[in-house]
Amino acid sequence: MLRLPLSLMISAAVLASSAFTASAQSRSVPIVRDAEIEALVSDYTTPILNAAGLGKQRIKTILVNSQSFNAFVDGRRIFINTGALLQSETPNEIIGVIAHETGHLAGGHQDRLREQLKQAKTMAVIGTLLGLGAGIAGAATRNSAIAGAGGGIAAGGGEIAMRSLLSYQRSEEAAADRSAINYLNKTGQSAKGMLVTFERFASALSISGTQVDAYRVSHPLPRERIANLSTLAQQSPYFEKKDPESLQERHDLARAKIAAYSGGMGSLQRIFRKNPRGLGARYGDAIATFLNGNARNAIPKIDALIKEQPKNPYFREMKGDILLKANNPAGAAAEFKQAAALDPRKSSLIRMSYGRALMLTGNKANMQAAITELKAGVTRDPEFSEGYGYLAQAYGQSGQMGLADLATADQHYYAGNINEAKIFATRAQKQLKSGSADWLRAQDIINTKTKKK
């Protein structure tokens, strides 16, 4: 079951399943966790990162629960909105976005942007000081013209600084576009998806009727980007190359899942209107049926998909979620176990779902296996705070209260609630063997310094 702070809730439907999970690991960005979509995006990203020489830098790709078409980078992380995946009709479109963001990382644009921000701030301060000086001089000489000019200088300093910074950002965006095409060529992929994306932006801008000052935006205008990249993209020998059918199918399944959780049946019907009986449409229908509270009707729909693709781990995972909703944790555990066995990536999320289902059976014979699976999941994915919550429940049911308090402390710690984490860590220490690994972990949490606001 998804746990999400009220401030981050996007839709009531999002609260229904552990397969598509939003996390509060970041207080400002609503993070989405899903084994199926993460595996797909990883397959999109890995070749591009290798082409850019970043394959060994452990760059993480993170899904953001937002319906807008957007992506951005921060440190060694690429953030991709679920809305970008939803609106991209082909894998190539989203791969082009990933290639562009990789261009920012490879080019060190973030570090240079920080330097530009410092310079812009300095320019703005100098302009303000000059304006104040002129204003004071005008007041001292009772010259209103000089005083008025001082105000203009102060305002102009900030405007010049802003335009200089925006000009720099536009140049970096153009550089990232060119780098993206190079990465796509190195990986034998088309840049046509990038042009499709820019066409989408241009159409949206045209429909809105918004008049944009080209000098007051951080990105080149869509039509400008198309003009700059069109010839370069079409010169590639891969320009007309299409995505493999298997990858397109996975892309459709991911879009179906996002649509079902964020937009419901209406969104699914719009996306798959050209192929209403395709695999993606039927997958989305099964999920939407489940989310609408009709688990009994969803089971035969997901069973039909499993029969069609018996080795698909994510169909099994979804059936496990449906069975949990139908209050059948034993059946859910069996499905999650099969999903974990079929999953080539050995997703920590699926293992934690398996462990949670075992715990929910209430059978003491299953409790140690539940703890083993949950511990394996959080060990591989330590920042997934919800996993520690499940582990705390399993420890509690098995009577290991010190470890339950420590797991709860970790849950709060990774959710960013440091004060609460310290409270539970202190409680845990009183019940744990002094000097043990678990006791030392509790001490680490207690010693964590909280950042001042």
TrEMBL record:
Its cofactor is Zn(2+). Its EC number is 3.4.24.-. Residues 45-231 form the Peptidase M48 domain. Residues 1-24 form the signal peptide. The keyword Protease applies. GO terms for molecular function: metallopeptidase activity. It comes from the Bacteria. Keywords: Hydrolase, Metal-binding, Metalloprotease, Protease, Signal, Zinc. The keyword Zinc applies. Transmembrane segments: none annotated. It is an enzyme of class 3 (hydrolase). This is M48 family metalloprotease. It comes from Pseudochrobactrum kiredjianiae.
